[in-house]
Every structure is written in structure tokens, then in C-alpha cells.
Amino acid sequence: QEQLVESGGTLVQSGGSLRLACVASGISFHIYAMAWYRRAPGKQRELVAEITSGGSATYAEAMKGRCTIFKANAKNPLYLDMSSLKPEDTADYYCYAAGTAGEDEGYRRREVWGQGTLVTVSS
Questions:
Q1: Which of 6, 7, 12, 98 is the most buried (most CB within 10 A)?
Q2: Are 64 and 79 in contact (CB under 8 A)?
């Protein structure tokens, strides 16, 4: 079964730091990008940060300078380091992987979402 499992979400005080981790298992397609998304209460899901298989990272404006997405190698977890956290960063954080299937599946686009991990930032 293809799955992404997040961990690291917890209650943290405003100004604090946190590391989220995402472990992939059973992935049968070639991953070309992974990302962290979040959904705050009453809001739509939004991109936090994305990293390509080549290591190129992009960040949402709201998180630039306050987070780092990284992955040591193909077999290591995906991480998201966040600092200077604010109450408005409170959200469920989701891991996401996108890629392409093999020739037997016509190289179609594939994607997997994790179940999310809750980050709560207290004021």
C-alpha cells in the first residue's frame, strides 16, 4: 500500500520551532516532487513548501525565512523545519508526493497524500 506518514505535530508556543517528518512507503511510482501543505481551521489547503527530486525548493510567501524543506536522499524522510512559529501557523500539515507511473501504466501522473499531523501554536 502506498502511503505517506507524517509525524512531529504538537503544541508549541509562539516563537518556537518544530520539525515535521514524512516517511514514504510502498511508493511504486517515480517521485519528482514532494511537498508540505497545510489546512488551517476554516481555511483552504495551501502549499507550505515544495522540493523537487533535484533538490530545488520553493516556499510560500508566509513561510519564507521561517521554514526549510529537505530530504537527505531518496530513502530518507522528508522534513520540514519551522521556526518563529505564529498562532496563524496552526493547522493540519500534510505531506504530498507527485510523480509518474511506469511504462505499464502509461507514465500517467500519480500522487499520494498523507493523513496529516496537527500543529498548534499557542499565543
A1: 6
A2: no
The residues, any chain, with a CB within 8 Å of residue 13's CB and separated by 6 or more, are 85, 121, 122
Q: How far, in Å, CA of 2 to CA of 30, rounded?
A: 12
Which pairing describes strands 3-7 and 67-70: parallel, antiparallel, or unpaired?
A: unpaired
Chain mean position to CA 61: 16
Q: Which of 7, 19, 9 is nearest to 83 (CA)?
A: 19
C-alpha to C-alpha distance for 20 and 60, rounded to whole angstroms: 17
Residue 2 · residue 111 · CB < 8 Å: no
Res 72: pLDDT: 77
DSSP 8-state assignment for residue 74: T
pLDDT of the residue at 11: 98
Average pLDDT, the chain: 95
